Fold:
Amino acid sequence: MRMSRMLALGATLLVLLSACSSGGGSKPTIKIGSVGFAEAKIVAELYAQDLEANGYTVDRTGVGLGDRKVLLPALESGQIDLQPEYIGSGLAYYAPNTSTGDPKANQTALQAALTPKNITVLDYTPAQDQNAFVVRPDTATQFNLTKMSDLTAVQTQLKFGVATDCPTNPVCAPALLAKYGLDVTNATKLSACDTPMADALKAKTIDVAELCSTQPDIIQNGWVLLADDQQTQPADNIAPLVRNDFLAKTDKAAFSKILNDLSAKITTPILADLYKQVSVDKKDISAVAKTWLTAQGIVK
Structure:
């Protein structure tokens, strides 16, 4: 009788342990991914270190995986569980011609597009970064360029550099053609918001470069950021996209709070400074993230 009771108790304990390991408050390994340019990698690293500080194990294999047409299918398929997304551009990918200058509207519409794919959009940052076209001061003076529409009449005299995904990105080539009459079919294609694009503009290999609005090279080199006078670029605040099947394996509310609290602290000046430390000062991404997170009291 006593042996039977012990066996029953042991069986009950095993059931409880099994239940704890498969859901609820457990902390499974999370696979984080990002697009390839430095700023997105920095945000992914901020997520990673914050989650590690809260007891999660992080797989960073997907960080820098590729552009949106590579990364989003990886998220949908479960190759990764989480990624930072620029919500206006993400919405343009899933629902072309619906992005706006209102980040809340973009978040709501992106969630509607991602709900059938079982992906959740968490809170977005106050920080915003948009695709931006810049020129050297000498080019701006020579052709009297201050805004994007000024490029239309002189486009055949200029060499353009655009992101590798520009031809199929709704807010790049299609928008430039529809709103400004700019044909970038033969433009030089380089990694988005990355050093090679800045280097090409500096070396005069190109005259007009697609960069990120927070990219420190713009201020560093005194380049002229052309106003998007036809408002082709949406509000691109950054939010984590998370697979619902991952959230089902952990405490969803606690997990979401970790990243939502982090996102609330990331302003545009902070994002630009972190980006500068990596791309201009050549500091290690992990070290930059750790220093900032420590200063915020998020990690020790």
Q: What stands out?
A: Residues 2-22 form the longest helix (21 residues). Confidence is low (pLDDT under 50) at residues 1-24.
